[in-house]
């Protein structure tokens, strides 16, 4: 059965191609009947899993028997065995031909072709008469199916040769020349009787190779032709003679003059659109049709009568609107699942309830099927549908159902038709998360069963005709128990459908009128099922392929059958032979959570379509499992090239050897030949809102700005942006009879036909009114635009404006000129003065200035580029011109900064001076007298340039003056802004500016009584800029010494401990047992003096966040209740700090506090908050927080949702922005406001990200095993560079733009180095012994303990050594921990523990760490060892206060004996001043927690819940005993 012939019948008669005289029209051709040999590496562990492909022991044995009998010359017994294989309805894998994939039918044919003369004679005598009879009937009845049967079964007979040649001629005359050439080449190479068809057979093959472009093979065929004709004339079948080429003449040049060139683009044009992507190759284009700004008609797919008659049902339209808005904001690739088809004058659409037929011209309902979706009706009744909190994220079963149907379920959304019947897949079920646990293994319409139904309805009436499928054993003849993977491919009297039963994929070839089986072919067996009903198989479910909408594609006699499970199979449709398979390993194994995951919230498939595209002799596969784009040879499955998906969503079209790829923010072209980029750069576009359609040489693409883009296929030029006047976005496009039709999640719209627009032009042209004449010219211009004729279009639109200018004409003209200017700046540069007056809104102005700035920049005209960047910065809506949506987003000011950054990187010294001069002039002429707002706007756009330092200094002056007279409520806001500007000046390369900013910041911190932070800044002044004049005419050293000598400063910054030097006195049982239900909030990562050893906790009522210093002194209280922040039911939380900002992470939500510039009531200022779970807060939200890492600086708190999916991390925090991950999005938000500055898509959920204001560095989880990091610009998030670590190097810690790594062992040493990831330079590096252990401290320190006991502490930023002391030799150090307080470093050296009999130890709480080893105390000021002592089997609790005079240790002792007194606890208290032991005892407690409560007034420390009081007063004061309650 040859599918290639069927394809020609879909083509308009005028496009069919004929052979007449010497004029031959051919298309692409490659040899057929080849076998794809798949590498063993395609499967895990190198295993060639032939057991997953169809095999037959019976036919394999018959094949082996036949070979043996033929070797014995027993032809009468052996040949019938081979013929039985050819007659068999299915093909199988030949398991005896070595490793690889081989067709058993092909093997049988090879045996027949290799028969000796006696064997061939027997075969001819035995089967020739039957073949002759079938050939005669085929000719008499003009029956191509019979002709195919002769070729399939009796190819090696004379009738078989005649049938092959005749069938090839049938395809040849209709333009399907690759199919014809495939038959003829097989005939020429494999049949002894091909000589009877010479020389015409060879001549046709030569022409075919010529048009294919394979000039070498064409030359070979022509040389063979010359030999067969003895170099004389070639005589065509009609008797016409042509002189052959002469000796020395180029044969191919001779042939080119004879046959010319071909243009078969018209053959792809479809008058109807009866299946997905238009034709069997999936590369169709539509007859000429155009979009119009106002649709001709609209039809709702939601407002069914039965819904409108029931007011108690949920508001579906509102729900879908919220679902769609939410998805488009948070996800990329949000496209409708349903695509309409057009058959004649009927548009057939899928609604949520049933199928409906609409009139193409009017949009009126013609019919609807009586078969409705029972699942949909059941979902409407579900009591769980109530959701008062619903704001867009799918939570209830109905919301999940609607999400899957509207945007994910292509199996339901795709339809097909043969012009008489329409075919759809029904009863597919849906995956509803944990909603389905209780319904598993039940025959319920709500269950995701392993079966569905394929149904056929009449196109004209919607009348039901037949159905297949249904529950298992209901009707075995009609494929009960089968799951149809998508609608069938209808082609010339047959349906080709893909179905699955029990993990086995099958191709079903059906009669479209009755649904009866014509033939079938088993394809592949998956590792994972799609459902668990009627089976005990408990493998993880692959639920995604239930909704991929898989259908075969066909061209040139080859069926390409995708399975959605990592395997695609090619089948010869004439011989029914398995040609090839393409398999690939699954990147990530499917987990048991997959069947119940919240896949409705994300695009788990990656690609937005899965239909194989066939282009000539190539097939393009969009791989779901490999997430790549593959190009294979159509006839043998050989991989030609492959490239990663990146962010591509689908293939728009294949045009002139280029593949047009659509992504969430761009469209670009790849070369079909090798997959490399075909255009110099990608064309930026808004995110697509639907799949587009090719109309001649133009691609119409709907986008989420409410427009339809008209894109020229040759070069990607956007010809027009048609703004559609509808309340909803345009969805997937189809076309028929010159009309475009689109369907989204709620409605179908039909656009005006090209014929009606032409008629409108005719009528308007006859009018004398200028408005009508202008309208006619405008419409002509639009039609020229849509057809790709830019020159004529501009002339007509310009003429329309001259007659009577309108906003519509000006907008269209300006849009076109902007696109042309952007596309070819040099050609249209002269038109700039004409464009600017025609710009109608700020969006066009912004685009105009962007084009000018970037192009002038690339041409080296820096002055013009900078002028246009500044014009762009002066636009009114600079910070609110775009809304953040799924995909890439960059705010305009950040885009300007990124371009200026690029400008500075590429500038030479002369250009840098030109830039400095330009901004100096601009400052003098525009900014010197500017106000605060104008200065801030300028710096947001250009503040990353050194030349803008003057403007920042001026802004600091303006803010300082306003701060002096501001009200107390506004002072904190102004001071915050001032400190931000000063922090950015601190990073200036100018010593004067940097020292000035440092001095001013120190001054502010002193005024706020933050002496520790001020002291650090003053030390920086003394060391970095001692002689630089920085403030009030004083140098850095003078400013620092002036403050440091101030008595009040000395008193505050060097105050003695509030705790007396007396030894602690221990008292017990003086008070009742305390209660502590507070939740710890640990500060992780690096810190600064403002937060050193601070402790945070959520109060007992979960309404307040409390802060204490290292000695337990309360600092501030923040009301969580007033801020509307809910505290999850988790035992601990984390926080990170930057300067004076505190970022508290509650897992599901984080918030940013300014702890210095507080509100008037003393509370920290809440700057902003952000949820880490997509959607609004909900009672259904559930998270779990996991804590890992030894030291606080290395600690990580991982948050997972109810499906164990990891939520995003908080990354870099710097003076300009905070980076966080939300789903697959990396977002940079303004540190002070939370406004999104830029956003990037495509991150794995478990990515790490760090960096500074200039660069953000990404590292994925895979990168930890394959160390690799990507550097992105901090201005706009674009990738700047990518690095891999040296072989053997491992990442230890990352901060700002630096990465600490450890090299591989070499001569008993390892190299520890800090690398700048932006410059790829080593900051510091030194060797350590391979047995040296190391850890990090929170104050930028790295501590190392060598085997000989040497303890050294270095500065993490510079590598300079701060401390080195000698401890006890420790050859078996297990790990090291560094803690510190104001006076000392505490180095914990963990050693192996000798296990005692019948005693084990457990942590006392979830925030404590088990420890056994030496504890060293080192003076921070002198670097001397203060004391050391051994701690045996203890636990360190990180929630205690480290600036107290004592440290408490506790560990739970487990002895295997249950007691009524609670857990046995080994408690130990060490005096940190001298290392003496204050207390050591074993006690009991029913509470798995220890907490320390200092009383600064009484100089007491309470250790709870053990009722122990440590008194530091002299003489000690005894507390009164608690009074017993009266009996």
From TrEMBL:
<feature type="domain" description="Pyrrolo-quinoline quinone repeat">
    <location>
        <begin position="506"/>
        <end position="683"/>
    </location>
</feature>
<dbReference type="InterPro" id="IPR019734">
    <property type="entry name" value="TPR_rpt"/>
</dbReference>
<dbReference type="InterPro" id="IPR011047">
    <property type="entry name" value="Quinoprotein_ADH-like_sf"/>
</dbReference>
<feature type="repeat" description="TPR">
    <location>
        <begin position="774"/>
        <end position="807"/>
    </location>
</feature>
<dbReference type="InterPro" id="IPR018391">
    <property type="entry name" value="PQQ_b-propeller_rpt"/>
</dbReference>
<keyword id="KW-0802">TPR repeat</keyword>
<dbReference type="InterPro" id="IPR015943">
    <property type="entry name" value="WD40/YVTN_repeat-like_dom_sf"/>
</dbReference>
<dbReference type="Pfam" id="PF13360">
    <property type="entry name" value="PQQ_2"/>
</dbReference>
<dbReference type="InterPro" id="IPR002372">
    <property type="entry name" value="PQQ_rpt_dom"/>
</dbReference>
<dbReference type="InterPro" id="IPR011990">
    <property type="entry name" value="TPR-like_helical_dom_sf"/>
</dbReference>
<protein>
    <submittedName>
        <fullName>Outer membrane biogenesis protein BamB</fullName>
    </submittedName>
</protein>
């Amino acid at each position: 059965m040859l599918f290639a012939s069927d394809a020609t019948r879909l083509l308009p008669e005028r496009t069919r191609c004929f052979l007449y005289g010497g004029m031959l029209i051919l298309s692409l051709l490659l040899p057929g009947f080849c076998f794809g040999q798949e590498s063993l590496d395609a499967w895990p562990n190198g295993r060639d899993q032939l057991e997953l492909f169809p095999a037959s022991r019976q036919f394999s044995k018959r094949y082996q028997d036949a070979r043996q009998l033929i070797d014995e010359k027993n032809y009468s017994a052996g040949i019938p065995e081979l013929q039985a294989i050819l007659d068999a309805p299915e093909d199988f894998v030949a398991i005896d031909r070595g490793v690889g994939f081989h067709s058993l039918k092909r093997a049988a044919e090879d045996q027949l072709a290799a028969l000796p003369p006696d064997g061939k004679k027997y075969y001819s005598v035995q089967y020739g008469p039957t073949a002759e009879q079938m050939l005669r009937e085929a000719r008499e009845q003009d029956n191509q199916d019979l002709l195919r049967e002769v070729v399939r079964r009796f190819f090696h007979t004379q009738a078989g040769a005649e049938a092959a040649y005749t069938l090839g001629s049938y395809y040849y005359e209709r333009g399907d020349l690759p199919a014809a050439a495939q038959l003829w080449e097989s005939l020429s190479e494999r049949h002894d009787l091909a000589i009877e068809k010479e020389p015409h057979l060879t001549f046709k093959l030569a022409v075919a190779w010529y048009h294919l472009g394979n000039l070498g093979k064409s030359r070979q065929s022509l040389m063979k032709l010359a030999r067969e004709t003895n170099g004389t004339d070639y005589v065509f079948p009609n008797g016409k003679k042509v002189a052959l080429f002469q000796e020395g003449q180029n044969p191919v040049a001779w042939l080119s003059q004879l046959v010319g060139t071909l243009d078969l683009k018209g053959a792809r044009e479809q008058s109807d659109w009866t299946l997905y992507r238009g034709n069997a190759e999936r590369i169709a284009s539509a007859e000429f049709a155009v979009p119009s700004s106002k649709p001709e008609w609209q039809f709702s797919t939601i407002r069914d009568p039965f819904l409108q008659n029931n007011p108690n049902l949920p508001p579906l339209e509102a729900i879908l609107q919220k679902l769609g808005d939410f998805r488009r904001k948070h996800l990329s690739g949000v496209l409708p699942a349903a695509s309409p088809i057009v058959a004649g004058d009927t548009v057939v659409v899928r609604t949520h309830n049933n199928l409906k037929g609409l009139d193409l011209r009017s949009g009126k309902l013609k019919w609807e099927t009586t078969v409705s979706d029972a699942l949909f009706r059941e979902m409407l009744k579900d009591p769980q549908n109530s959701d008062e909190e619903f704001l867009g994220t799918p939570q209830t079963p109905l919301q999940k159902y609607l999400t899957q149907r509207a945007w994910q379920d292509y199996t339901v959304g795709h339809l097909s038709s043969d012009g008489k019947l329409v075919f759809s897949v029904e009863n597919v079920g849906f995956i509803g998360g944990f909603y389905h646990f209780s319904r598993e293994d039940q025959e319920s319409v709500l269950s995701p069963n392993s079966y569905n139904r394929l149904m056929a309805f009449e196109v004209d009436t919607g009348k039901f005709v037949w159905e297949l499928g249904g529950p298992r054993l209901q009707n075995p003849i009609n494929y009960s128990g089968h799951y149809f993977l998508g609608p069938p491919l209808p082609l010339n009297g047959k349906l080709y459908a893909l179905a699955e039963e029990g993990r086995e994929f099958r191709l079903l070839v059906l009669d479209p009128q009755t649904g009866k089986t014509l033939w079938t072919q088993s394809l592949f067996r998956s590792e994972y099922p799609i459902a668990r009903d009627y089976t005990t198989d408990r493998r993880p479910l692959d639920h995604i392929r239930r909704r991929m909408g898989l259908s075969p594609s066909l061209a040139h006699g080859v069926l390409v059958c995708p399975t959605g499970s990592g395997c695609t199979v090619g089948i010869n449709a004439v011989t029914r032979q398995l040609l090839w398979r393409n398999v690939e390993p699954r990147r990530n194994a499917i987990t048991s959570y997959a069947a119940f995951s919240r896949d409705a919230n994300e695009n788990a498939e990656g690609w937005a379509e899965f239909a194989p595209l066939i282009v000539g002799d190539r097939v393009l596969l969009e791989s779901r499992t490999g997430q790549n784009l593959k190009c294979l040879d159509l006839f043998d499955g050989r991989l030609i090239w492959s490239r990663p998906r990146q962010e591509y969503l689908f293939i728009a079209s294949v045009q002139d050897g280029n593949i047009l790829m659509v992504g969430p923010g761009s469209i670009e072209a790849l070369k079909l030949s090798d997959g490399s980029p075909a255009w110099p750069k990608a064309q930026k576009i808004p995110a697509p809102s639907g799949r587009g359609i090719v109309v001649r040489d133009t691609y119409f693409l709907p986008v989420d700005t409410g427009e339809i883009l008209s894109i020229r296929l040759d070069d990607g030029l956007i010809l027009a942006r048609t703004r559609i006047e509808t309340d909803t976005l345009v969805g997937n496009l189809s076309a028929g009879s010159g009309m475009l039709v689109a369907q989204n999640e709620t409605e179908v719209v039909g656009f005006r036909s090209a014929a009606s627009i032409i008629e409108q032009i005719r009528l308007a042209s006859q009018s004398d009114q200028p408005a009508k004449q202008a309208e006619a010219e405008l419409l002509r211009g639009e039609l020229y635009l849509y057809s790709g004729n830019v020159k004529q279009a501009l002339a007509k639109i310009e003429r329309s404006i001259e007659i009577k200018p309108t906003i519509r004409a000006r907008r269209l003209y300006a849009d076109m000129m902007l696109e042309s200017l952007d596309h070819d700046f040099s050609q249209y540069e002269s038109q700039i003065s004409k464009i600017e007056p025609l710009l109608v809104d700020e969006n066009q102005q912004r685009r105009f200035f962007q084009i000018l700035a970037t192009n002038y920049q690339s041409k080296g005209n820096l002055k013009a580029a900078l002028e246009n960047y500044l014009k762009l910065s002066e636009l009114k809506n600079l910070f609110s011109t775009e809304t953040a949506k799924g995909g890439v987003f960059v705010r305009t000011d950040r885009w300007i900064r990124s371009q200026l950054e690029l400008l500075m990187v590429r500038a030479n010294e002369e250009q840098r001076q030109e830039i400095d001069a330009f901004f100096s002039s601009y400052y003098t002429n525009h900014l010197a007298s500017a106000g605060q707002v104008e200065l801030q706007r300028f710096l947001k756009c250009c503040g990353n340039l050194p030349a803008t330092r003057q403007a920042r200094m001026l802004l600091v002056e303006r803010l300082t003056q306003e701060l002096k007279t501001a009200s107390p409520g506004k002072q904190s806001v102004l001071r915050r802004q001032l400190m931000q500007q000063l922090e950015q000046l601190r990073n200036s390369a100018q010593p004067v500016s940097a020292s000035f900013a440092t001095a001013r910041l120190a001054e502010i911190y002193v005024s706020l009584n933050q002496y520790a932070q001020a002291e650090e800044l003053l030390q920086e002044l003394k060391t970095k800029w001692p002689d630089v004049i920085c403030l009030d005419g004083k140098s850095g050293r003078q400013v620092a010494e002036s403050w440091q000598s101030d008595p009040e400063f000395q008193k505050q910054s060097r105050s003695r401990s509030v705790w007396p030097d007396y030894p602690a006195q221990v008292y017990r049982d003086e008070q009742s047992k305390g209660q502590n239900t507070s939740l710890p909030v640990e500060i992780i990562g690096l810190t600064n003096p403002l937060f050193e050893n601070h402790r945070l906790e959520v109060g007992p009522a979960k309404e307040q966040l409390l802060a204490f210093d290292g000695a337990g002194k309360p600092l501030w209280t923040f009301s969580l209740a007033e801020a509307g922040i809910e505290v999850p039911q988790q035992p601990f939380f984390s926080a990170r700090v930057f300067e004076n900002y505190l970022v508290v992470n509650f897992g599901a939500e984080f918030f940013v506090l300014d702890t210095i510039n507080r509100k008037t009531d003393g509370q920290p200022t809440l700057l902003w908050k952000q949820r880490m779970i997509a959607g609004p807060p909900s009672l259904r939200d559930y998270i779990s927080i996991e804590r890992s890492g030894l030291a606080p600086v290395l600690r990580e708190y991982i948050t997972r949702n109810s499906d164990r999916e990891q939520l995003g991390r908080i990354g870099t925090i710097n003076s300009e922005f905070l980076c966080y991950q939300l789903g697959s999005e990396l977002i940079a938000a303004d540190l002070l406001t939370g406004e999104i500055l830029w956003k990037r898509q495509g991150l794995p959920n478990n990515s790490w990200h760090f960096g500074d204001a200039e660069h953000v560095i990404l590292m994925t989880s895979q990168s930890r095993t394959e160390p690799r990091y990507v550097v992105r610009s901090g201005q706009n998030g674009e990738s700047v560079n990518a690095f891999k670590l040296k072989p053997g190097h491992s990442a230890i810690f990352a901060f700002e733009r630096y990465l600490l790594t450890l090299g591989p062992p070499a001569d008993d040493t390892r190299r520890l180095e800090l690398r700048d990831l932006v410059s790829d330079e080593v900051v510091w590096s030194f060797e350590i012994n391979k047995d040296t252990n190391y850890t990090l401290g929170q104050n930028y320190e790295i501590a190392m303990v060598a085997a000989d006991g040497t303890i050294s502490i270095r500065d993490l930023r510079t590598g300079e050594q701060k401390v080195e002391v000698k401890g006890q030799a420790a050859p078996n150090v297990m790990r090291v921990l560094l803690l510190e307080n104001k006076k000392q470093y505490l180095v914990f050296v963990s050693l192996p523990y000798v296990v005692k009999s019948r005693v084990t130890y457990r942590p006392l709480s979830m925030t404590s760490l088990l420890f056994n080893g030496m504890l060293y105390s080192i003076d921070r000021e002198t670097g001397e060892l203060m004391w050391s002592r051994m701690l045996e089997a203890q636990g360190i609790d990180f929630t205690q206060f480290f600036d107290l005079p004592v440290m408490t240790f506790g560990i739970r002792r487990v002895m295997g004996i249950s007691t009524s007194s609670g857990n046995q606890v080994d408690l130990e208290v060490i005096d940190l001043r001298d290392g003496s032991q204050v207390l050591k005892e074993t006690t009991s407690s029913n509470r798995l927690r220890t907490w320390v409560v200092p009383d600064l007034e009484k100089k007491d420390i309470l250790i709870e819940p053990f009722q122990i009081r440590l008194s530091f007063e002299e003489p000690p004061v005894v507390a009164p005993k608690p009074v017993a309650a009266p009996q």
